[in-house]
Amino acid sequence: MPLREEFPEAGSDYMGGTCDGYEYQTIFAGSRLQASYDMVRQFLKEEGYGDVPLPKDAEELKLFRLPSRNKQLLMFEDNGYIHNPVKLLFPYDGRNKNTLILCVYNEKDAQHLLKFHRILERKAATQSR
Asked: Where are the domains of the chain?
């Protein structure tokens, strides 16, 4: 059953990725960034996310990479392409430029949009100050 239809349970190991019941995360690493990106596109199509708009190619995807190497900034911002319910991120360390981190979020969660856009995280951080 495709991921979009039956989201994995917390702690499950689905297709080599990890899931906490809300966020599924896996890594794609090809010989070139375009190869990694092609793998991501195929995976999303097979898992029911073929309708999610994505950059046309790896060159366009690179335009979504944050220019900063400041690791503190990257802790609070997603470094890559974001379109609900998918985040396609570049690794924080920047060493492997051909690697992509795919995060897919459970759209059936009652607070999906608040979690996807990190509203709850920001609210908690503000209240703890």
From this structure: 12-128
Nearest to 3 by CA among 44, 40, 38, 37: 44
Instruction: Report the helix count and the strand count for the chain, using DSSP H and E.
Output: 5, 6
pLDDT, tens only, 38-56: 999 999 999 999 999 999 9
Give the ranges where the chain is alpha helix by DSSP (H): 33-46, 58-62, 71-76, 112-116, 119-127
3-state secondary structure of 29: strand
- DSSP 8-state class, residue 12: -
Q: Measuring CA to CA, which residue among 63, 13, 59 is closest to residue 34?
A: 59
Helix residue ranges per DSSP H, 47-118: 58-62, 71-76, 112-116
